[in-house]
Amino acid sequence: MEESNLTNDLIKKTAELILDSNNLVVLTGAGVSTESGIPDFRSPKSGLWEKISLEESKYIFSDPKIFKKIVQELGPKIVKAKPNKTHKVLAQFHELGILKTLITQNIDGLHQKAKNHLVLELHGNATEFICTLCHSRFKTKKILKKMKSLDENTITLPSCTKCGASIFMDIILFDQPLHRGIFYESVSSAQKSDVFLVIGSSLMVYPANTLPNYALEYGAKLIIINNEKTDFDPRANIVLRGQAGKIMSKILEVIKKKQK
Ligand code: NAD
């Protein structure tokens, strides 16, 4: 992990930029949920790539064995996870009228659990499975329970109880195209933003990582909060290096003091 660069001055400067904004748009990545116990992909040692190779993961929708492995690795953690400080601070930003649009690459539904209901989910949501044929939805919690009762060597997942077709986690991964409407709205929000804040993302996943470009091209200021370097750091107005929960709590503290 990179060394933290936090100073009271930097936190104050960030809080002021956020408070002075008219259109704050936030993009979150897997790094905002590691403090809730869900591994990200790229953190050294704890990232998911340590357990599932990138090559393997490409076959998630064509090889049921790999799909089962990923569901069993991520599913229980997502079902059990609770929102952490970052999710809660962002929900408060929304309540205070500071946060206009929240875009996430995450599939864990934790922003919604923290009562941030208007979320643009670029990669879908793993808390539900969807039937490929009749589009019925099923809670992941229930599917995991059914999977537990299956023999270890059974590869197939439970199927749709209404029509019998295959069901999949309602997520978008790797070479799949994003939901057009959601991506279009995210691009448009980025272009309209005056401050674009990225939290807990390596900014390596396309096309989510094009969003800061849209914001910068249209004159927004860029803030990055991450515990490792990203390729966008040189173009950011502020880079805060450290744990997202701690940083976001400090920013909220300053904002609340200034609003008194
Ligand atoms: P990523 O794994 O590529 O990057 C996460 C970044 O967050 C890393 O740079 C890491 O150093 C940083 N980080 C980790 N914990 C942090 C913390 N506590 N504070 C500050 N920074 C922290 O994740 P990404 O950019 O979101 O892209 C990967 C893809 O992974 C996304 O498409 C997402 O859908 C998927 N994913 C989602 C979840 C989830 O929903 N929680 C979990 C794993 C993967």
Key attributes of the depicted protein:
alpha/beta; 260 residues; 9 helices; binds nicotinamide-adenine-dinucleotide; 9 strands; three-stranded antiparallel sheet; elongated; six-stranded parallel sheet
Report on the architecture of this protein:
The longest helix has 17 residues, at 64-80. The mean pLDDT is 90. The protein has 260 residues and is α/β, with parallel strands linked by helices. The two termini are 36 Å apart. Helix 4 runs parallel beside helix 9. It has a six-stranded parallel sheet, sandwiched between helices. The protein has a three-stranded antiparallel sheet with strand order 5-4-6. The chain is elongated, with a radius of gyration of 19 Å. It has nine helices and nine strands. Strand 4 and strand 5 form a beta hairpin. Nicotinamide-adenine-dinucleotide (NAD) is lined by residues 29-31, 33-35, 38, 40-43, 47-48, 105-108, 123, 200-202, 204-205, 226-228, 243-244.
Question: How is this structure best summarized?
Answer:
The protein is of the alpha/beta class. The protein has 9 helices and 9 strands.
Bound molecules: nicotinamide-adenine-dinucleotide
Number of strands: 9
> What is the helical fraction, as a range of percent?
25-40%
Structural class: alpha/beta
- Main pleated sheet: 6 strands, parallel
Beta-strand level of the residues, as a percent range? 15-25%
The strand order across the widest sheet is 3-2-1-7-8-9
**Spans with pLDDT under 50 lasting ≥5 residues?**
none
> Count of helical segments?
9
